[in-house]
Design brief:
This protein is an alpha/beta fold and 755 residues long. It is built from 30 helices and 15 strands. Helix 6 packs antiparallel against helix 7.
């Protein structure tokens, strides 16, 4: 009908529906079409966007409610995709455009902006828990205070606004306060957290009282909004009661009031015949029963919720109810029932993999609180049973690693195959976190063997070893400074099962974060390093499904030797030896097998065009691997290539289904200091590149020695050696040389994959 505003409004509504399904990229694309702007805003490289040009184009659109709604949702989607700076800029721009509109629209925008700052605060909290470096932790605490104060003040400024806005602001404020208390419970009363708590705490009583009596007037709230609002209040009050963080002297007993809110939500959900809301209400009611010791009533509520979820295909409700049921059954010694419930919970999680970020959207906490523990608790039960099922335990551990990677990448379900499917499998050492123990399960010739180590001893020595390896003056240290810790780790993790390693001396290490950031090859038996004895590779317990082959060994070398604009913006030095590295690789493989993209020719566009013809990609440039996707990147000549960008760059040019990378070799990169899960960054880059194998360094290495290692590595690959064997020989060549014998030069290289 030519109704442009109607078309835009429909696209905005479509975007909202896509957000609720967790399809944030699709939601972003709908808004791009609605606003007729560049698609690059939906990609994970927001710094590339010409903001001035973008806003000039948006200025030409009329400042109507539907345009502002589109801008607001684009800001919200940016938040969901972890592009917080971009989301903040879009929402601030939308506020400037909305000044002449209804005040309720402005209020909603302010709430969305406050939620962006809340998300930033939560991200800081996650990063704090993933690092062990004191200086980084201290800096993050300072950031948390600033971000927390901003969130608190912005939400509080909306308390006196229109009814719906006021209630929603108080709901989000209560969740913010609950998360703050949860942080304090886990990490103690740090000075910055206490300072933030002291600012927030005086308002807790009033907010709780006002929310308890909130009527969720149907004039302002739809029935389902009212139900989820009450559930959010009840859930946060229950958590705060557990933290003993509710003030005394409240008008009503908060636990009783919260329970009544959950029951009211259940009754209303039944009345409007919303099965998912009914199941979620029953789960929360069951949690109240369990918390007050009424386990029989709790189990009844969880079973009813599970049955409703199963009958209505509400997999998120099934996983939560089955998990809660499993914990109670385990508590009462009903081992078989508990195992079955854990299986049901994980099966339901499998149904919603790829949308983990949108599970139970209105009550969402964090992946580490709501998803990982399901697998970890089930894993513990499997290996501590009178008759341990190690095969099933390894399957669960492998699935958790893949799910964690999917959550890290914020992508859909990834295609991986189990290591066991690989022919001629080497000996595999699996390290499993099991409460106060580290379980080691060794697979050799199809048979499983197991033993345990003290987790506190392992983690303490791994942390000390990692601290030395990440030191800026590592190359000046005594080459044996870290041997005491390397020997303890060897004795605990390797020695009891070393006799199982086959005559081919091939070894795969699968570990779930126990010693991340430490080089396994540096473990020492008192006479020699592990690297000297074995051809070692690391794995997630599975590998990317790929049809790529190594027959041609066609290799693309991309690198930056001169000081590039991207390196200059981060104050990073030039890498003059990168040119030598490229020459060494060409000499090892032959000019007919190699091509290059060096310095100014190393751009995202050129990489995208050339890569489909090659099975090996060698990148020599600055980069970093981190548990934070935003801080995992490689530098091309002009800008950063972030982990999320690799999927678009590399796969978009691939038309042949048999194409794909067999090896991604990343030179001159480093892990994020003190980050125990940096390997996620390497795994993420390899996965997004579609590579079956990846090699990278755990710390930034002197680039001249790296060029020597690279040439030696490819020389052995060309002669038919496996990647693990070629890397071992190249490392030992450095170790036995006159100039590069210090572990600083040869120890950091890590092979992820099993080919």
């Amino acid at each position: 009908m030519g109704n442009d505003e109607g078309v835009m409004g429909t696209l905005v509504n479509q975007s909202i529906a896509q957000q609720m399904l967790g399809k944030n990229f699709n939601a972003c694309w709908s808004l791009i079409i609605a606003l007729d702007i560049e698609a690059s805003i939906c990609r994970d490289r927001p710094e590339e966007i010409n903001k001035e040009e973008l806003f000039l184009k948006l200025d030409k659109l009329p400042a109507t409610p539907v345009v502002v709604a589109a801008l607001q949702n684009l800001g919200i989607v940016s938040r969901n995709m972890s592009m917080l700076d971009q989301g903040e800029q879009l929402l601030e721009y939308a506020m400037r455009r909305s000044r002449k509109l209804d005040s309720s629209i402005v209020g909603d925008l302010k709430l969305s902006l406050a939620n962006i700052h809340h998300a930033n605060w939560s991200m800081i909290q996650d990063r704090y828990r993933l690092t062990s470096e004191p200086a980084i932790k201290s800096g993050l605490l300072k950031q948390s205070l600033a971000a927390g104060e901003l969130t608190f003040s912005e939400l509080q400024s909306l308390f006196d606004g229109p009814k719906k806005l006021s209630v929603n602001a108080k709901l989000n404020w209560l969740q913010f306060y609950q998360q703050l208390q949860g942080w304090i419970v886990v990490d103690g009363k740090q000075t910055e957290l206490v300072a933030l708590e002291q600012k927030v705490q005086p308002f807790v009583g009033d907010v709780v009282t006002e929310l308890e009596i909130a009527q969720f007037d149907p004039e302002f709230f739809t029935p389902i909004e009212a139900i989820y609002g009450r559930l959010k209040i009840a859930d946060n009050l229950l958590r705060l009661h557990k933290y003993q963080a509710l003030p005394e002297g409240l008008e009503t007993e908060p636990l009783t009031a919260a329970f009544q809110l959950a029951k009211k939500s259940h009754a209303e959900a039944k009345q409007i015949e919303n099965s998912r809301a009914e199941a979620l209400s029953l789960i929360l009611i069951g949690k109240f029963y369990a918390y007050s010791g009424q386990d029989q009533h709790a189990q009844g509520a969880f079973r009813r919720a599970q049955n409703i979820g199963i009958s209505t295909f509400a997999s998120d409700a099934v996983y939560q109810s089955a998990w809660e049921l499993a914990k109670l059954q385990r508590k009462h010694g009903n081992r078989e029932d508990a195992l079955k419930s854990y299986e049901n919970a994980i099966a339901a999680l499998e149904e919603v993999r790829g949308n983990l970020l949108s599970i139970n959207h209105s009550l969402q906490q964090t992946f580490h609180e709501d998803v990982e523990p399901v697998y970890e608790e089930y894993l513990q039960m499997l290996v501590t049973s009178p008759e341990p099922d190690f095969e099933k335990a390894l399957n669960v551990s492998r699935t958790l690693q893949v799910v964690t990677l999917e959550n890290y990448l914020q992508c859909g379900k990834l295609a991986f195959e189990a290591l066991e499917a690989q022919p001629n499998l080497p000996t595999v050492f699996n390290f499993l976190s099991l409460g106060d123990k580290v379980g080691v399960v060794v697979r050799h010739n199809g048979t499983l063997h197991s033993y345990t180590a003290d987790r506190q001893i392992v983690e303490l020595n791994a942390a000390r070893l990692q601290r030395i390896l990440q030191s800026t003056n590592l190359s000046q240290m005594d080459s044996e400074a870290f041997l005491p810790y390397a020997k303890v780790l060897y004795k605990a993790l390797i020695e009891p099962g070393e006799h199982l390693i086959g005559a081919d001396n091939r070894l795969i290490i699968v570990e779930d974060g126990v010693i991340n950031g430490a080089s396994v090859g540096l473990l020492h038996d008192g006479t020699s390093y592990l690297l000297e004895k074995y051809k070692i590779s690391n794995s997630l317990g599975s590998q990317a499904v790929s049809q790529s082959g190594r027959a041609t060994l066609k290799t693309l070398v991309a690198g930056v030797a001169d000081t590039s604009p991207a390196a200059r913006s981060l104050d990073l030095p030039s890498l003059p030896e990168v040119g030598q590295e490229e020459l060494a690789i060409s000499a090892a493989l032959g000019d007919s097998r190699t091509s290059k993209l060096m310095d100014k020719s190393f751009t995202a566009e050129n990489l995208q065009q050339k890569l489909p013809k090659y099975s090996i990609l060698h990148i020599a440039t600055h980069g970093k691997f981190s548990s934070n996707p935003a801080e995992t990147y490689l530098l091309s000549w002009e800008d950063r290539l972030r982990v999320g960008e690799f999927d678009r760059l590399i796969r978009s040019g691939v038309t042949d289904s048999s194409s794909g990378l067999d090896l991604l070799f990343l030179s001159a990169c480093e892990t994020a200091k003190g980050d125990s899960r940096s390997q996620l960054g390497l795994a993420g880059l390899a996965t997004q590149a579609g590579a079956k194998n990846a090699i990278a360094s755990l710390w930034r290495v002197e680039s001249e020695s790296t060029s020597v290692l690279a040439g030696e590595f490819y020389r052995h690959v060309a002669s038919g050696a496996s990647y693990a064997e070629a890397l071992q020989k190249a490392q030992l060549m450095l170790k036995n040389s006159e100039h590069y014998s210090h572990p600083y030069f040869w120890a950091p290289f890590l092979l992820l994959g099993s080919s």
